[in-house]
Amino acid sequence: MESRPNLMPPPPNRESRLYKEYAICDLTLYKTGNIGLRWCLERDILSGKGKTICGNKHCAYDRGELHSYEVLWKTEETREMVTVNLCEECAVKLNYKKYKDKRDKKKKKRDKKKRNKSNSSESD
C-alpha cells in the first residue's frame, strides 16, 4: 500500500502570525503597577482592536480620539518599545501608579509643612 503524502501545509510558526505594529494591554491590575502586554493577532487587526478601538483587552471604546503611548516591554531576552492606543479612561489606568506616587509625595510635603508650621507656632 502506497503512503499518501501529507497534503496539509505545515503550521506557520507563531512569530509569523503576530502583528508587531501595536500591542494589546491588560490593565486589570493597574493599581499595583502590573500591566500585561501581547502583540496583536490577525483577529485584532481585522476588528481594529489596538488601532481604531481602544487597545485595552477589556475595553471596547471606539468613539472619539485614542491616545498613543510607547510602553517599555521587557522580556527575558529583549527590551522593546511598543505602541499602545488607549482611550482617555484607560490612559489614566496606564499612568495610575505614576500619578499616585506624585500625589502621595505632594501630600507628604504638605503634611510636613503643616507640622512644621504648627510646631513653630506652639513654641512662640
What is this structure's SSE topology?
Elements: E1 19-26, E2 36-40, H1 42-47, E3 67-74, E4 79-86, H2 88-94, H3 96-123
Antiparallel strand pairs: 1-2, 3-4
Q: What attributes does this structure have?
A:
single chain; 124 residues; alpha+beta; two-stranded antiparallel sheet; 4 strands; elongated; Folate-sensitive_fs_Fra10Ac1
Taking the sheet with the most strands, its summary is:
2 strands, antiparallel
Write the element-wise H/E pattern from the N-terminal end onward. EEHEEHH
> Residue ranges: pLDDT <50 for 5 or more in a row?
none
Beta-strand percentage range: 15-25%
What is the structural class? alpha+beta
Region (Disordered): 100-124
Biased composition (Basic residues): 100-117
Explain what this protein looks like in three dimensions.
This protein is an alpha+beta fold. 33% of the residues lie in helices and 23% in strands. It has a domain at 14-96. The chain has helices at 42-47, 88-94, 96-123, and strands at 19-26, 36-40, 67-74, 79-86. Strand 3 and strand 4 (79-86) form a beta hairpin. The longest helix is centred in the C-terminal third of the chain and has 28 residues, at 96-123. The protein is elongated, with a radius of gyration of 24 Å. The relative contact order is 0.14.
Short summary of the structure?
With 124 residues, the chain is of the alpha+beta class. The protein has helices at residues 42-47, 88-94, 96-123; strands at residues 19-26, 36-40, 67-74, 79-86.
